[in-house]
Structures are given as C-alpha cells and as structure tokens.
Design brief:
The complex is a heterodimer of chains A (609) and B (707). Chain A is of the alpha+beta class and 609 residues long. Helices cover 21% and strands 39% of the residues of chain A. Chain B has 707 residues and is α+β, with helices and mostly antiparallel strands. Chain B is globular and about 100 Å long. The chains are: A alpha+beta (609), B alpha+beta (707).
C-alpha cells in the first residue's frame, strides 16, 4: 500500500490536451503583458525610405535640365544682365523667335532669372541652375567707327562665333555671325545691330538644335503634346534645309553652265555667288571690290533672304579661286565698309586703290587704300557725289567726276592724295565731259567741248596738274560731229585709245607724242570702254553685237577684231594682265536665287591667244 | 474570479489599450500637424506662399498663430515618445498625457483666434482653413467618438452619455452661433430648399453632397445619441469610426472628383491634406478624452502608473496655457495709429525724385513684369530698362543731402521688390520703410502701396505698385485714448482718381486727396451743375431734377465754403474707417439686404454705411451734402456698395422702407423721402445719423477730437 500522495500530473487534469506536446504558458502577472507594445521604428524606417525615394525623384526632377529650355547668353557690349541694352534687345528678339518655334527660352524679365544670372560665375552654370538644356553663347565685341559727318554718325560692326552648348551632353557646335548697322547715335546703331543679329543667330543654331539627340528624342518620340509643340521648329528646319540646299545647288549649277558654255576657255576666279567688281590688274593678281551676300532662312518671312556683308576691296592673286569674304579663312581685305559708290580704280603701277565711299547715304568720301590695309579719306562731302575716281601712276593724284548734287552735270576734279587739296578742276557749261585718263604721273587727258567752241568739236585736252599756273592744252581735236568717249591710256602713256562715233563706230588709237590718230573700223562691234595692253599691240573692249556684251580684242598691227567671249551673260570691264597674255573681265548674270534683287558678277580670265 | 474583479481587469486592460492608442495617435497627429506647414499660407495665382516665406512679414501674434500647429505637432511627437524604462519621455501617466493633449489643442485654438484678430489689422487675414470656428466643429466630432467608445465600458458609461449629450451641445453651438449676422442653420435650411427644387438630379446629387458635408457634424452627433441608453457591441462602434473618418472621407470625395475633372491644383491638394489633419486631430482628441475618462473611473490602485498625477498636470497645463494665451493677446494688440511727423517744405529735388524718377522706375518695373508674365514675352530689354531707371532714381536719391536712410530704404525697395510672387506684406513693409525714412527726414511725401489683382493669361496676377503723394497737411485726432490721423495729400502722377479719399486698416492714417476734392467741389459747386454728370432721359431725368434743386440751394448756402465742406466731410468719412478698423460689427440691416452676397460685399457696404453716417455728423458741414452725394446712387444705380448704403442710410434717417421687395428700390419713393428729409435742420439730421449708427452697430458714434 502506498501512503504517499501521488502528485497529479497535469495531463490528467487536462485530459483534452493529453497526448499533445504542450508549451508552458505562464499566467500573466498583469494585464500589461496582454497588450503588445507596438514597435514603431519599422514604420519610421519604411516612411523614411519612402520619403528618401520620393525626395530623390523630386530632386532629380528639380535639377533635371529641359532640352527645350534655352538660355540666350550673348555678350554684345556686355551681357544683358550686366545692363547691356543691345544684348537685351538681341536676347529678346532671339527668344521671341525661339518661342515661336516651340522652345522655351529663359525669360529675361523674370527677376529670379536675373538673380541666378548675376550670382553665377558663367552662363553655363547659370543655365544649369535655371534648368536650361541648352545655352546659346557668343562674345561679340562691336567695332565702333565714328564717321566724320557733321552731326556725327556711328557705324558698328560685329563678327564672331556663336556656340550652342548642350548642358546634358556637354557637346558644343559653332557657327559664325557678322553684321553691321549705322545711326547718328551710338546707342541707336547698337540697337539696330542687335535687331539684325537675332535672325542670324537663330539661323546659326537652329539646325544643330533640332538635330541634337536630346531634341530628336522628342521629335522622334511619341509624346503628342511635345511633338505638336515642336512642329513649327521641325517645319522651319526642314524648309530651311531644303531652301538652302536649293540655293547652293542653284549657284553651283549656274556656275557650271557658265563654264560649260565657254568651252572651258574661261577661267572663273570668283566664287559661285560673287558680286565682284574688277578694279584693276597688277603683277600676279588683281584688285576687286566685293559685295558678298549670305542667304539665310528668315524666321519671319519663312523664305531665303539676303544678308549683305560689308563690301571689301581686296587684292587677289591670280590662279587661286576666291573665298567669300564672310568665310573665316578668307584673307584680310584692304578695306571693308558699308558701300562703295561707282567704280574704284587701282594705281596702274602700284598697290593702291582709289574709291568713293558711301557713308550710309550721309556723305561721300574719296578714299585711298593700300594693300597693307591702310586707308585715308582725302575728301569727305555730305553734298557732292564723286564718281569713278582714277589714280594717276605713282599715286600722287586722283582724278574724279564731281557732281555738286544728285542729277547735276559732272565736273572733273583732280586732288592731291597727300592732303586732299584740289589741284585742278574743270566745269563745263555745256556738260560735255566725255571721259578722262592719266597719261603719266601728272598729266591727265580728258575729252570735252571747250566752252565757247563754235564748231562743237570734241577735243582731247591735257593738263599737267603739277605745274603752276595750270594750262589746258588741246593737242587733239576730233572731227566735226565726231563723238569721242571712254579714253584710256596705255600703261606707258604713249598711246591713248578711245571710242568714236563718227559715221560709224570706230576704235581710235592716238599717238600721244605726235597726237596723230589711227582709226579702226568697229562698225559691227558697237565698242565701249577700250583698254590697251602694256605692249601697245592690242586693245580689248566691250562689244554689244547681240543682246549681251562680250569682250573683243583688236590687234593694232592687223586691225583684226576677234571676239574673246561669246557665251551667256554680260562681259564687262576688260583689263589686260601685265604680261598681256590674258584679259580679265567680269561675267555678269542674274542671281539665280534672288533674280529680281541682284546680279552676280564673277571675275574671269581668258587667254588672248 | 468575481465579476467585479473581471470587470476591473477588463477595464484596466482597456485603459492600457486606450493609453497605448493615445500615445500612437499623438505620434501620427504630431506628424500631421508638423506637416501642416506644407499647406500654403496663401495662394498667389497658382503659386502657394508657404509660412516660411511670409513669417518675417507677420506681426508677433500672427507668427505664433501660423507656427502653433507645427509647434504643437512637435510637442505631440515628444508626448508619444517613451524609453525602455519610462512610459513616456515627457509624461508617463496616460491621464496626464491626455490633459497635455487637450491643453495643446486649446493653446493652438486660442493662438489661432488671437492671431486672426491680430492679423486682421495686417494686410490680409489668416487662411480660412485655420480660422473658421474650429472649436465647436472639432468638439462635436471628438465628443461623439469618445462618448461612443466610453459607452462600451461599464464604469465609464455615464461619462460616455454625458459626452454624447455634450456633443449635441457643441453641434448646437456650431450651427446656431451667428456668423456675420446669420445663423448657419438658417443658411443650410435655405440651401436644402434650393437643392430640393433644382431641376436636374445630377445637380441635386452634387449640391446634396455639399450639404451633407455641411450637415455631417450634426448627423454624426445625432447618430451618437443611439448609444445614450444602449451599449455598443464593440469598443470602437461604427459611430465612433464615422466621427473620426466621416467628414475627412467626404472631403476626400471632393478631392477625387477634382482629380477626375482634370487635374488637381494646389486647392485640391490642400483640401486632401486638411482631411488628413482632421483625422489626426479628431482621433487624438477622442483618444485623450477616452483616456481621461477611463483614468478617472479606473481606481488608482488597480492600474498603477508612475508619473505626475493628472490634477497636477492639469494645473501646470492651465498655468502654461494662461501665460501663453495672455502673452499672445498682449503681443497681438494692434500697432498704434496716428501720425506724428513734422512736415517740411516740398523741394524741387523731392518733386523730381517722387514725381518723376520713382514713377519712371515703377513704370519700367511694371512693364518688365508684364513682359515676364506674358506667354510670348521675354523681357530682357524691359529688365535692363527697369534696372537703369532704378539706378537713376537711387543715384539721384543718394545725391540729396542727409539722405542715407532714405536712399538705403529705396535701395532695399528696388532690390527686394523684384519678386513676382512677393507677398503683399513684404511689399507694404518695403514701402513703409521708405515712408518712415521720409517722415524722419521731414520730407512731405508719402508712397501709398497698392495691390491690383487681375486675371491674366497665366491666371491670377497681383500687381504691386506705389502711388506717390505730396503731403500738404497732417491732422491728428483722438478718440478716447486712441490716436488717429488724416493726411491731406495731392497725387504727384496720373490723371483724375475715382475716390476723394481712402483708408486701409493696415495704414496708420487715412488719406484725403485734395486734388480730387477740388475737382469734385468744382464740378458740384458750379452754377447749374447737376447731381449726375451724365446724360439722362425721361423719368430718370425727373428724378435727378429733385436732387439738382436741392444741390442748388446747398450751393447758395455754402457759397465759397463748398470746397472746405467737401473736404471736412470726406475727412470725417475716412477717419471713421480708421476708427472702425476691421472688426466693425455687421449691421443686421446689411445682412438682411445682402443675404447670400459674398462677405466682401457685405463688409464693404457695412463699412461705408458707418462712414457715411459719421460723415453726416461733421461739425460745421451741412449733413445735406452727404444726401446729395448719395442721391444718384440711390435712384439711378441698381447695385454696388454706394447704392446699398444710399438706400440703408435713407431708410435709417427717415424711418421709412424704400424697397419694393428684398432689394429693389422704388426710386420715386426714394426721391419723395429725400425731399422730406431735406427739409430737416442740420442738428435734426445729425441726431438722426447718430441714432441710426447706434441702431446699426450697437454703440455710440465716436466723436473724434482734432488735436
């Protein structure tokens, strides 16, 4: 018999759980243990992670650059945020054009923009801060030329590169712009310049902008809203590309036609779209006056328009084709300016050119320029019109037609190029001046009917302008009723050739030592502007036997006249090369791109053989 | 175990659960309140101005009011923290925590209310979302939520019933407390009728939802009465959940609708955030009340808890609250009015600076802003021009003798005004600094800052501009111990103005435009001049003829003193605006006449009524001058503040009703009444005006004394 009490086994007290493995569950000491203490740190971790991710995307969105947002940062006499009014005008005009095309230029009027631009060290960092995807930059330092006009006149010129930089990719593309403007006040001139530069600047960057990968992502993407927004830009660029290509092709095609028509005998030295004037020929080259034009696509008119470059006077070596003056690689010209009035002339035996400068219509000057680029204005006059200046051999004197006002009859005036003083002048009441030429470094010959003449016969007068008192000699008198014009002396002055209309057209060659004449029948040739070769054996002249003018050659030995050119276009201003083997001339025809506005004029040469 | 013991255990368990719930809700409420700084303080077009942008411009009490929700949020978060060894970082005992929560809410509410009072003296009122009677609204929802929960617990059932009844009381206060002269429940009842009579069911549903939102607190409170006698089956019954989540859910419904309608603007996002804030506030307040009630009914020994006892916590909270609200009140007192400056003589340089250079700069600046805002504009040229004009002005100012302070203030103005999203307060401060410098230098010029609001292509635009005046005279006044002033000024730019004078609550003085007074007096004082300067025909011509006859007699009476009379009465008019301030009680007559009109229209009519009545009491000026001035508005206009005032004033003076219906005025009756009143003597009219003032505004018309 067992007296000890058998302890109760838990499973017997709880038969329900008998056989199951049961964990010990202590009875709670307090109800506090029933209520779980919630841990909040996982919530904060998740919350913090969400905030961090959201923050990351927000920051990324805030600092991301927008490829359609563009900062215009062109330094034109300073940046606009530095207070430069021309730069502000240019920025506004360019931004306005960019807006029309669907881009989003940074607004200069927003004070926040101003604060950023003023605080950043350069435009690129400012552009990044402003969220711009591109920045258009240029440093255009205006060259200011003050013209000697009574109330003042300012000409401003700029030329330089414009760069388009992508801030995301870090790529840069560069184009060049140039321009000029004039006004009586400097500020006004700069404002006009700024106006004209905006379209150029847009033209310089738009193609690169549209073709940039960041923008192409949009134009080739599927975002309808952005596609619609950039549609004007796409159309603009496409139209521009097509029209510019067509223009280049037109010029090339026309140039090729000219070459083909000449059978390869005419060598062209001017570029395809040149408007060159042949000033004179010298050893190894020739002087030329240019008036180059760059076609560019206007954002306002949506067609090609001409951007006229400053006119230049250059010396070009023979044998190498010329570059447009707007080309960065083009040689520095002797002179560059707004406009040359009438025809310049070169010193027959030297390196100087005389020309009449048009100061924006406010005055005319007689200017002498040398190959080194040194220029002197020897006469400035707001009223008189000077035409066709001719430098004497040696360059001491220049003879020029002088019209006291527009439409008035021309007088002949000779100036000393050292001081601009008039050394000789002749006014004819009968307005009979028919041309002039230099026989040597101090004797000028001119055709006229002396006042008071009873028989109205033209004479060739000669004046030695270095001698005092001046004396007009009349060594040669034309036939009664004969019209003598376009006199031109040989380089040594021994001969003088002119055109005569007496019964029939003739080329008259005069021996200036005996003042005897030899006539050459040119009835069929309608000659004008003859020139004699250096050796005195040939005369080249313009001839109009058909609708166009050509260059013809007269052999003084045989009297035979042959046509040097016989193809499409006008040929004018023949000049013999110093060795007499070639004749240089201008070939003129309508500009194929701007046929109603402009004529091309290309310098060409032909061998006289 | 006995039933009582079980009950106690269960109570203790629920008490701890409530305490834990309160702690957690403190954290979320704190986060939500801290995040409330992300709600725009005010909107400028589509741009939000946040509290950190404007905090520098607010007066002290308004600053406190603006920051109080965020500061309270931080404190809530601190209340929710605990350590390994302590049940709370700051407060351990749940009941003390509940007391702290309730005190914080009272403090925030009090600061908001004081701040509203304070900032009404400033340029613009505080945002409506934080000021439109939040206390009874929150109380209704909170008490219902807490009361329903407490009804679940045996020992707290009585407390729960009391809270449910108190909720009904709060709802009654919310709906029956007159606001701007009208009881809200009246407005809602009128709206119910309107909605019921709408023709389209879609409109009925739409407006019905708006009504549901307006009635939600009442409905929730009434739902809670179900548990006055019955016991909910769960600790968190549906009514309690509805009290916390119901109104926010309705708000979010409207936000959702805004998204569907085509994008959510800042307004919709603000409403969404407000909904979250509401959930946080109601839930934490309800939890606090639950804990407080359960703490009271739970014996101390059964659920021992360390920390300060609630009675001591309450005493500390009350003390801190009283000190905080007291300080806010003191700091929120408006700045003294009046002007004490000595007028120097105008100078050629001063005239050039303020009459030519400053307006030139301002025009350039406004042009620049217009460019920058317009769709296709850029504005660089305008920017350069504005800066150039600014430099010109500053350079000239610096050249003036002893002008360091003035040129410094102008320099700051030119530098800081270039912010298109500038707050109106900052603009006033910048211009005010210039005016202070002018006063100290005794230069007789004043720049009046103004804001023009218009809707442009890019949305609402605010144009900040200044009008320069030459100060001719300064007239100080006193009303009791309060000082006021009027400035007699002449505009230095521009053509004719519309008003003879004007006053703003934010300005320390009123302006009287002498040039306009002369122009007006010249026109009205000319022989055979009419009360109305335009062309009239038929009946309208006959009506005006009544006034013309009266005006002729007034001209004869006043003679050469006509201009002086106009000036004195205008001065009294503008001075009354200064005296009234922004808290002029709304006249019942105005409320009745303009029931349903916007608050702004009501306020304007109310203020003008006060000012015109005051004008009639100007000493040495016939009150009849006011009657002829208002007559054309009364008979020819159909609306506008002056028309309403003309009608109310004539009704008040004559004691006759001139309206055919609610608003339409019978013009011949007006004319006949005018003729009767015209025959009254000056003193009789002045007495009538004073009586009318008292009847409208409940107090005697102040009598300012010129010093």
């Amino acid at each position: 018999m067992n007296d000890s009490p058998t302890p109760e086994r838990p499973e017997e007290q709880n038969p329900v759980i008998a056989g199951q493995h049961r964990a010990e569950i202590p009875a709670p000491d307090s109800t506090a243990l029933i209520i779980p203490k919630r841990r909040l740190w996982p919530v904060f971790v998740v919350f913090g992670a969400i905030l961090a991710v959201a923050g990351f995307f927000i920051v990324r969105a805030l600092v991301a650059t927008d490829p359609l947002r563009i900062l215009v940062a062109i330094d034109l006499d300073g940046y606009w945020w530095e207070g430069s009014e021309p730069a502000a005008k240019l920025a506004d005009e360019l931004a306005s054009q960019l807006t029309e095309l669907g881009f989003d230029p940074v607004k200069g009027g927003d004070p926040k923009t101003l604060k950023v631009l003023e605080s950043q060290k350069d435009p690129k960092s400012a552009a990044k801060k402003l969220g711009a995807g591109f920045v258009i930059e240029a440093h255009l330092t205006p060259e200011i030329v003050e013209h000697p006009i009574k109330e003042g006149y300012f000409e401003v010129r700029v030329a330089g590169p414009v760069t388009l930089t992508s801030l995301e990719k870090g790529t840069t593309s560069t184009s060049h712009v140039h321009g000029y403007a004039g006004a009586q006040k400097k500020d006004r001139a700069l404002a006009l310049l700024a106006d004209s530069m905006a379209s150029q600047a847009l033209d310089a960057v738009i193609a690169q902008l549209i073709d940039h990968p960041s923008v192409r992502e949009i134009t080739e993407g599927s975002n309808v809203k952005l596609l619609a927004r950039l549609d004007p830009a796409r159309k603009f660029t496409e139209s521009r590309r097509v029209q510019l290509a067509e223009a280049i092709e037109s010029y090339a095609k026309k140039a090729k036609e000219r070459e083909t028509e000449s059978g390869g005998k005419t060598l062209f030295w001017s570029h395809d779209a040149a408007e060159d004037m042949l000033v004179g020929a010298g050893d190894g080259g020739y002087f030329v006056k240019t008036a180059d034009v760059t076609p560019f696509y206007s954002s306002q008119s949506r067609k090609l328009v001409r951007h006229e470059a400053l006119e230049t006077i250059e010396w070009r070596p023979l044998g190498s084709p010329a570059r447009p003056t707007t080309d960065e690689a083009a040689p520095k010209p002797m002179w560059k300016g707004y406009h040359v009035y009438s025809y310049p002339s070169s010193q027959p035996d030297g390196d100087r050119v005389a020309f009449v400068e048009d100061l924006f219509g406010w005055a005319k000057t007689i200017t002498i320029a040398d190959k080194g680029g040194k220029t002197r204005r020897i006469r400035v006059d707001p009223e008189h019109r000077f035409v066709d200046p001719r430098l004497a051999p040696g360059g001491r004197y220049v003879a020029v037609y002088d019209r006291p006002e527009a439409g008035a009859a021309a007088d002949l005036m000779v100036l000393d190029t050292n001081d601009g003083k008039e050394v000789f002048g002749i006014h004819t009441d009968n307005e009979s001046l028919g041309g002039f030429t230099w026989l040597d470094d101090r004797r000028v010959a001119f055709v006229y009917v002396p006042d008071g003449s009873t028989d109205n016969r033209r004479v060739i007068a000669v004046v030695d302008v270095s001698r005092q008192p001046l004396s007009i000699e009349k060594p040669f008198t034309g036939k009664p009723g004969e019209e003598l014009r376009n006199p031109s002396a040989s380089p040594d002055g021994s001969k003088l050739v002119c055109v005569s209309s007496y019964a029939k057209p003739m080329v008259v060659v005069i021996d200036t030592s005996a003042w005897t004449r030899k006539d050459f029948d040119a009835a069929e040739w309608r000659p004008s502007w003859p020139v004699i070769s250096r050796d005195g054996t040939k005369v080249a002249f313009e001839t109009r036997v058909r609708r166009n003018t050509d260059i013809a050659l007269l052999s003084l030995e045989t009297g035979a006249i042959t046509k040097l050119t016989d193809d499409f276009g006008d040929h004018a201003t023949p000049r013999f090369s110093p060795d007499g083997t070639k004749v240089l001339f201008e070939v003129r025809y309508k500009d194929p791109v701007f046929p109603t506005k402009r004529w091309l004029s290309r310098i060409a040469e032909r061998s006289v053989q | 175990m006995s039933t009582q013991a079980e009950e106690t255990d269960a109570l203790g368990m629920f008490y701890r659960m409530s305490a834990e719930r309160l702690r957690t809700r403190c954290l979320w409420a704190g986060l939500a309140l801290v995040a409330s700084v992300l709600i725009p303080y005010e909107m400028v077009g589509n741009t939000g101005l946040f509290v950190w942008s404007v905090i520098g411009e607010l007066d002290t009490a308004a600053k406190i009011a603006a920051l109080s929700p965020a500061v309270a949020g931080v404190l809530f978060m601190l209340l929710s923290l605990r350590t390994q060894t302590r049940g709370g970082l700051l407060i351990e005992r749940p009941t003390s925590r509940a007391v702290a929560v309730l005190s914080l809410f009272l403090g925030v509410n009090g600061a908001q209310w004081i701040g509203t009072q304070s900032s009404a003296w400033g340029l613009l009122p505080l945002p409506d979302s934080l000021t439109t009677r939040p206390a009874p609204f929150l109380a209704t929802l909170t008490l219902t939520a807490a009361g329903a929960v407490l009804r679940f617990h045996a020992r707290a059932r009585k407390a729960g019933s009391v809270l449910l009844l108190a909720s009904l009381g709060a709802a009654t206060i919310f709906y029956a407390w007159p606001s701007r002269g009208e009881v809200p429940i009246q407005t809602i009842a009128r709206s119910v009728i309107v909605v019921a009579t709408l023709g389209d069911a879609r409109f009925q549903i739409g407006y019905g939802l708006v009504l549901l939102l307006a009635l939600a607190p009442l409905l929730i409170s009434l739902s809670g009465l179900v548990y006055i006698r019955s016991v909910p089956k769960r600790e968190q019954p549906g009514v309690s959940i509805a009290a916390v989540w119901g109104v926010p859910a309705l708000l979010l419904l409207f936000v959702y609708r805004a998204f569907l309608a085509g994008g959510a603007g800042m307004g919709a996002l603000t409403v969404a955030f407000f909904a979250v804030l509401l959930i946080a506030a109601v839930s934490v307040l309800a939890a606090a009340i639950e804990v407080l009630a359960l703490g009271v009914v739970t014996p101390e020994g059964e659920v021992p808890w360390p920390g300060i006892k609630p009675v001591y916590a309450g005493a500390v909270a009350a003390f801190v609250l009283a000190a905080f609200l007291g300080a806010s009140w003191v700091l929120g007192r408006p700045l003294p009015k009046g002007a004490e400056f000595v007028l120097g003589a105008p100078s050629t340089e001063g005239d050039k600076l303020f009459g030519e250079l400053l307006p030139s700069w301002e025009n350039a600046r406004l042009s620049r802003d217009a460019h920058a805002r317009s769709e296709g504009g850029t504005g660089a040229t305008a920017q350069v021009a504005a800066k150039a004009r600014g430099r010109e002005m500053l350079s000239f100012a610096r050249g003036l003798p002893q002008s360091e302070e003035l040129s410094s203030a102008l320099s700051t103005l030119t530098a800081e005004v270039d912010d298109l999203e500038l707050s109106g307060r900052a603009f006033s401060r910048l211009v005010g600094n210039v005016n202070s410098a002018l006063q100290r230098r005794q230069m007789p010029y004043y720049l009046d800052p103004s804001v023009s609001i218009r809707v442009g292509e890019s949305g609402t635009e605010r144009i900040f501009y200044m009008t320069p005046y030459r100060v001719k005279e300064v007239h100080p006044y006193r009303v009791g111990r309060d000082k006021f002033a009027t400035l007699l000024v002449e505009p230095m730019t521009g053509g004719a103005r519309v008003h003879l004078g004007f006053s703003r609550d934010s300005d320390p003085f009123a302006l009287v435009l002498t040039s306009e007074i002369e122009r007006y007096a010249k026109r009205m004082g000319a022989p055979n001049a009419s009360c109305f300067s335009g062309e009239l025909e038929g009946d309208r011509k006959d009506l005006i003829a009544v006034c013309d006859t009266a005006l002729e007699s007034l001209r004869k009476r006043l003679g050469d003193t006509f201009t002086t009379a106009v000036q004195l009465s205008t001065e009294r008019h503008e001075l009354q605006h200064q005296i009234d301030g922004p808290h002029l009680p709304l006249s019942g007559a105005v409320t009745e006449l303009l029931a349903g009109f916007q608050e702004e229209a009501q306020d304007r009519a109310n203020r003008e009524l006060s000012a015109y009545l005051a004008e009639m009491t100007t000493p040495n000026v016939p009150p009849h001058l006011t009657l002829v001035h208002l007559y054309p508005f009364g008979v020819l206009s159909r609306g506008g503040a002056e028309h309403r005032v003309a009608v109310l004033l004539m009704e008040s003076i004559s004691g006759k009703k001139l309206r055919a219906g609610a608003r339409a005025v019978d013009a011949p009756t007006y004319a006949a009444t005018f003729s009767e009143v015209w025959n009254l003597s000056d003193d009789a009219l002045r007495n009538a005006a004073q009586k009318a003032y008292k009847s409208h505004f409940g107090s005697d018309l102040p009598n300012p004394i010129r010093e």
